[in-house]
Ribosomal RNA small subunit methyltransferase I
Amino acid sequence: MPASTAAPGVLVLAATPLGDPRDASVRLRELIGTADVIAAEDTRRFRTLAAALGVTYTGKIVSHYDAVETERAPGLLAAVRDGATVLVVSDAGMPAVSDPGYRLVAAAAAEDLPVTCLPGPSAVTTALVLSGLPAERFCFEGFPPRRPGERRRWLETLRDERRAVVFFESPRRTADLLAAAVEVLGPDRRAAVCRELTKTYEQVQRGTLAALAGWAASGDVLGEVTIVLAGAEAPDAPPVGSLIDAVRERVDDGERLKDAVAAVAEAAGVPKRELYNATLAARDD
């Protein structure tokens, strides 16, 4: 059977509202109505969203959750090859961010098939800006490990993380997670627990890990939960004079003074110029 000569269609990953349907973009409304195939993490929730938006869809709807993502990929890619517009949506927020999608994108990219993204709501960035914590630099950690030992080891990797950390958690495990965080990261590290973002009962609880652990332990935590952890504070830099011997040792081992100063200053978190001048002054004494 000859291969199709039709121009390829396009694979579109589209962000859907976190809760309030009014956050849907005009482009999302248009695409729901015109897509040939709609791959939805939960087909029932997609139908509910379309009804809330007042949009009539005519495309074929297929389920596209974690357990079937690999199985669905060949059919979805074939549709794109044959010229179809394939829309991929998760339950809420952006597909492929702790939701199905990235395997499909990787497979499409490997075939050089057209892939694009319809931007929109994201629980990650929404929680980050609502947290009230410094957000110039941040990282996203998905879901923490479920088992206590693995979760503790994961928390230990965040002890010295200078960036803000955003992650999701099950409401049933939030209290245990925060209690473990107090033990590993200390009671005074600041964080924010964001639940039911953009929904009727949206809540952002801010404070120290100790305060948040107490809050979570005092009652049931309900709804979708996103947690933002403040970055670790920078350690106090040692006195510049105490680093001169370390510079001298590197120079005695054959390293150029400028390079030795740069390496020691960076490791200690002190200005290179101050350490360089202090080293020269000590040598002249």
In short: The first strand starts at residue 10 and ends at 14. The beta strands are 10-14, 37-40, 60-63, 85-89, 115-118, 138-140, 164-169, 190-195, 203-208, 225-229. The first helix runs from residue 26 to 34.
